[in-house]
Every structure is written in structure tokens, then in C-alpha cells.
Amino acid sequence: MSLPNPFNTLQTFAGGKKFYSLPALEQAGFNVSRLPVSIRLVLEAVLRNCDGKRVLESNIKELASWQPNAARTAEIPFVVARIVLQDFTGVPLLVDLAAMRSAVAKMGKNPKIIEPLVPVDLVVDHSVQVDFAGAADSMQKNLDLEFSRNRERYQFLKWGMQAFDTFKVVPPGIGIVHQVNLEYLAKGVLNAGDVYYPDTLVGTDSHTTMINGIGIVGWGVGGIEAEAGMLGQPVYFLTPDVVGVHLTGALKEGVTATDLALTVTQLMRKTKVVGKFVEFFGPGAAALPVVDRATIANMAPEYGATMGFFPIDAECSNYLRATGRSEKDVATYEAYYQAQGLWGIPQAGQIDYSQVVELDLGTVVPSVAGPKRPQDRIELQNLQREFFKAVSRPVTENGFGKTRAEFAKSVKVETTAKKKATVGTGSVLIAAITSCTNTSNPSVMLAAGLLAKKAVEKGLKVNPAVKASLAPGSRVVTDYLKKTGLQPYLNKLRFNTVGYGCTTCIGNSGPLDAAIEDAVVKNDLVTASVLSGNRNFEARVHQNIKSNFLMSPPLVVAFALAGRVDIDLSCEPLGKDKDGAPVYLADIWPSLQEVRDAMQSALKPEVFRKLYKDFAAQNPKWNEIPASVGNVYEFDSQSTYIQEPPFFTNFSMSPGTIAEIKGARALGIFGDSVTTDHISPAGAIKKSSPAGKFLLENGVAFEDFNSYGSRRGNDRIMTRGTFANVRIKNLMLGGEEGGNTLGPDGQKTSIYDASMAYQKQGTPLIVIAGQEYGTGSSRDWAAKGTNLLGVKVVVAQSFERIHRSNLVGMGVLPLQFKEGTTAQTLKLDGTETYDVVGLSPAVKPQQDLTLRITRKDGSVQDVAVTCRIDTPIEIDYYQHGGILPYVLRQIVSKN
């Protein structure tokens, strides 16, 4: 063993190009060729970055000796090649970097020591809202509004571009981060000098996994972890299990890649792949084009996996060529992976997996998912029955708790456009072709256009109550919809392009027609949205639309035509043609051959090269925005968008100590499936909320509130919005909806006001939750807000991977109840005080601690809990009060 050539693995390929050879590592005595491909790609990064400090020889040996079913105790230090951000998560990350530079400058050091050490690309895609829809000028109006609302944020991003050498921005109006990553940012192979290595990354959006569809290792992390990665820290994670999914057969006529993605999501949830790698192999995987693979990989967060990975083969080369990468780069790409022994989709028996799951693609049927979770797949023909059941199911069982009389409710309204509509339970009010999941896939986008064409030709119209929108993931989509002549038909059905960004799927659906929203709220109707997205959690799409269904783009168009979800499209008509005859879905559904014919004009290399060439020229509004200059950002104390966060206030070079937590009070007791959408502020800001009141007090008019996402650079707004979701149910208030709790005086108050009162008293706070706490997007503010509310401990029955990691990264202690123990079995009501006993500087990862509960009557109960600080480095993070103080102390001590 000698550095920098561990195990004599630094070899050459393709005429002298250098690389760290996995076959050479096999010759050194490790059975590398039986390892899952995803593990081998991580192993290459460990091998190449072995420096005896960040990455040790023992790390190589541990990962190269990976066993399918061994105990998972080894921690992998994964140094990624690049980092990708979207603006909602990227702006607060840049704010933190600016705050670190301020802290360094105050210490009399050079602020330039805070600098990303790997390339960082930020794509502005989360700021566009669908304020205008259904008209030819919708996109321009939305873009104008976006720039006026977000000018201050965009100025700040421009400051970041000039302040940091490795920080680049793809401006608004270009595309969705994951599609831009797939079509443009991804290189497949990178090089530093004459050493070549795989393209790997982490991103501050959980759907970063979409890149797994082209054989690139990458997944979503919180902004907190991404910052550490930018500043030279490896991404640490426990050696994972790898579940192999053996795909056979082929999709049948009438079945889309979306149906397959929803089927895989449900199957993988049942397989329990949370925190595991999922790797697809077999003849079915090899036959899928990259765009279909990417659709499945995109949904990995929904099935709980760290990755949904497809290995590298000729399909990947075909995609790189088709999307405008140079022939020279593709040749290097192929030569590299062939030299590494990583070329081709593995077949059955070639790889050792922790578990193998079978899926025959021929068994996949048309499907949707909802009404509240992406893993709740419903066969299309069963939607009417399942919606009926959901409406009458108790709220505690993921239903809406209504009586059957709900279906008799209907209200006649006249829209602001003077259109008459009837709205009732089951009415579709939003139909959105949006989100990275599907807009990157020409097969489903063209299918939507073909279905629209047939519908228009038959004289069908979209129900007047429906707000229809099309938000392509990149300008390439617009190009091929125009070239195929399909865009005019989508426009006829009001699916006009509203912008290029992640709109409805993240809550940027914009307002409903005022008359329609009034009818929904006054009559408490269970209405629906249909969207081609990946997220449909409660109150995410729109605060007053209770049921939300994920589906393919052509089905979105179909349900917009039907105007309701309580319908069986397999046998009920969508509407009537010009002659009054019924039209069924089967009458207008495009055949596979029709889609294939249209695909001929979809992926043209020259189009990709042209549209990804000069962003500034495509977006003159971006050029008009001025930028401040300098290495240290001058924060404006009056700004309601960008504020210096308090994470480095009174910063010192000495870390804290780990000690028992005593006398904590409950800020909230929650049930199962509390998502980061419930915790982290997202979507619209209500006037009556603590954040809304704060904005009004600071002179911001209600119409200028913008969204929580756009104000993520201001901790004053975000802390007030944490746990403020209108649908969160605090069991301390009997499960009542809304972000309220009991304050120190025992009276009902907002969670924010209770937190402030407790912090004034110096009382630490605890949050108690059920299963799957923190599922949802990789929202760093779910952890940051928790920290700033004074929460020291979160105890849950189980945690989502990213959120657990982010809590530790913000110095919040995650504890897990033992199997069978819940807030309900312990009969907790929030009047108790809590101590965490056994917590000391000697704490070990995943050791048992004691949660001591002292009840109102003075009785005491000790409950065993597992400390979910999972890895040794996380002990350090926790002691330092989080990743950022830890990294800052490391950097300053070296300079």
C-alpha cells in the first residue's frame, strides 16, 4: 500500500489516460467483480481519494470486502465529484456560506478560505409559480412575476457567482434541475489533469436520484450535508444493503413508464428498502431506454431507497450522443467503463445482492397513486372505488373521515372568466403536467400531446373548473412538441406552457379561481388535483385541495377532460364528441407505434447543443439584474428575503460537550407519516400564521408574501413557519389540524409562540413522533427550523434517512423508540417533562439511552430508546453543535 497509488491500482487506459483500476484491486485479492455496480462506483471514489486522513486504507478494505448480508457498521467516506443545487435549497446554502465568510472575516482571517472545493451548479427552477394558466401569454406573465418577486434572491445568487470560483448558476426559465442535470450537466466521466474518474454527485433535492438512470451514482442530501461536501468533507454513510431488482419482459400496449415507476415504488415500499441501494438488472432493465430508467430512478425517495440505480451500457452512450455530448467524450466514456469492467447491465447470477426481487414488466398495468402518498398505487380501473373508500375512511387511517353524503354535495359557480362550472367532492380542480419525473421522458410527453390531438379532433373540452398547466422540464420538450405539431392541441385544452420549472409538484400551483376556492372552503369539499409529479402529500399541491393523484402526462389530460376522479375510465366516457356520442379513454389513447413515430423528432443532438449553449441570451431578464461584488456579503437588516442566520453568533473555536438533557417539555406529539412538508415551511404563507403576521408587521403587503420556498434565505420567516402546516395534527390537542400546541401556561398557542415562551424560560424542547418521521423532500429547513425552535431531541418510531442525518447535522438528537413502544402505548399527552439519561461524551453510535418521563402526578417511567447518531463522524458533528460549526473549526484551524 502506497499513497497516492493504493494497492498499485493507478493504471492507464485508452492510450495513456490514467485511472484507479477496480480490476487491479481485484488482483490485489478482493472479489470486486461480484460486487453490485453501484458499490463498485463508490469504491472507486474511496480508492482514488485515499489520503490516509479523510479516507483510510481500512475504508477501501471494508468496502471492497462488502458482503450481501453482513451487519452494517462500517462508515464510508464518499468524496463526490460535484454538487448540484436547486434554488429553494441552494439559496439558504449560499446564505450559510456567506455567514461562514462573515464569521471568518470577524476572526481576522481571509474570507476566501471558505470556498467550494468541488464544482457546484445551481439551477433556478423552484421559483416560478402558476399564477397564470390556460392562455398564450401565461409563461411570459409568470416569468415577469417571478423576476419581480425574486429580484433580491437573484441578486444574491449573482453575488455568489462572482464571490466563489466554483459556483455556477443556470438562470430561471431554462429547466428543472434534474432534467438539466441529465441532459446537460452530467458528463459520465470527469478528469482532473490526466486522471479520469466516474461522474458522482450529491444534490440538495431528494430527486437527484434521477441521474441514476444513466448509471451515475448520486442521491439527495440535506443542504447541510451538501455544504460539508462542498467544503471538502466526505459524505459519510453506513455501508448499505443492495437490493437487486430483476426486470424481465416488456411493457404492454397502453402502459407507460410512469405506470412502471408507480409499480416499482409500491413494490419497493413493501420490500422495505429504506436506506438501501436498489439496483436494477436483467433483460428487462437492458431493454429500457435511459428516459424510462430515469423515470424509475427519480422515484427512489418515494420508495425510500438511497438510490434506484441502473448500471452503464450502450443505452447510456446512445442517450449521451442524442443529447448533444461530443463523440470524443462518448468514446472516452465507453473506454473508461469498459476498462473498469463496469460495461453492460448484469444478468441473473452475475452479482451478489442482499436480496433479489422479481418484476415482470408485462404485469404492469395503467396506474395512479394517491390520494395522499406516492406509494399508494391504485390500478386505474379501481380509482373510483378507492376514492370512495378514502373519502369515508377515518383520518387516522389516511382517509378523509367523511360520510357518504359527501358525494351528494355539489355547488354551481361562475368563474372570474364568466364560465359556469359545478364543483363537488371528486372534482378535478388542478391538472398539471409538471415535475422532473415525467417531463424528461419524451415517450409520456408525446403521448400526452397525441391524446390531446385526438381529444380536440373529437370535440372534447376540458372542464371549466380545471386549472390546466404544462411546465416542461426543459426547453427541449417545447422544441419537440412544436416540431411534432402537438403543442397547439395541448393549448386548445388549456395545457399552455406556464414556465420551465418545478411548479405544482412543490406547491407552486398558484391560486385557484376565487369563486371555486370559496366554494371548496365553505362547503369543505374533498376535491382533487391530478399531476405527473412525484409528490402528493397533504397540503403540498394546494392548501385547499385535499386529494392529490400522481399519474402519467396522458392521464393528466384525460382526467382534465373528465373533470373528476370518481370515475372508472375503463368503462365510463370522458365526455361527448361533436355529435353527442360518448368518447372513451380507449378511443383517444395513443398506441405505442404512434408514440414511437413521434419520438423520431424528439432527441436531436443539435437542439440540445443550441438550447444549452448560451443561457444569458435566452433570458435577458437575468442580465438586467445587478449584483453586489466582494468576497463578504453585506447583509441588509431590513431584507425580508436574505438574513444572516444565527448559526455562527458568538462562534468560538472550542466545541461543546455532550451531556444529559434534563427537564425538556413537549413542543409537539405527532402520529405516523409526518413528512418534511408538515415540518418545513413550504407553499403559500397564510396571513394569520406567525410568518404572515411577521411579514405584515415588516411592511410587506399580502400580495407580496411570495412562498416560503422563496424566503428560505431568511431564518426569521422559516422558523416561524416550521411545524406551521395547516394539515399537521398535534396529538397534544387531540389531533386537531394546524400548527398549534400547548404553551408553558397550558393554553393553546402557535408552535412558534410556545417555543419562544419556553426558550425565554431556558426550557429545552422535545418532539415525539411515529413511523417514517421526516419522509419527503430533503428539506434542510425541517432540521434548521427544529433547531431554531429550541428542540434538543426528536423521538420517533422510525426516521427517514435524510431527515435523521439533517437533525444530527443541526445538533438535534434523534432517538428511536423500541419496537412496540409509541406515544400512544406510553399515554403521552404533553404535560410530562423528559430527561435523556446516559448521554455523555462517551456515547457510541446507535447505543441505547434512557428516556425518563416524569408525569404531571410526579410518577416516573424509564423507557429504553436507541440513539440514532449512526456513525462516528456524527458524534463529532453533534458535539460541535452541527456540521457547519464542525467544518468551520476544521477550516480555520488549518489556516
Task: Kindly describe this structure.
By secondary structure, the chain is α/β, with parallel strands linked by helices. Among the domains are: 6-78, no CATH class; 369-603, Aconitase, domain 3; 657-680 and 722-879, Aconitase, domain 4 (Alpha-Beta Barrel), CATH 3.20.19. 34% of the residues lie in helices and 18% in strands. It is built from 33 helices and 36 strands. A seven-stranded mixed beta barrel has the order 26-31-32-33-36-35-34. The chain has a five-stranded parallel β-sheet with strand order 6-5-4-9-10, with helices on both faces. It has a four-stranded mixed β-sheet with strand order 1-2-8-7. α30 links the parallel β31 and β32. α4 (87-106) crosses α7 and α32 crosses α33 (883-894). It is globular, with a radius of gyration of 26 Å. The two termini are 30 Å apart. The model has no long low-confidence stretch (mean pLDDT 94).
Give me some keywords for this one.
five-stranded parallel β-sheet; seven-stranded mixed β-barrel; globular; Aconitase, domain 4; 895 residues; alpha/beta
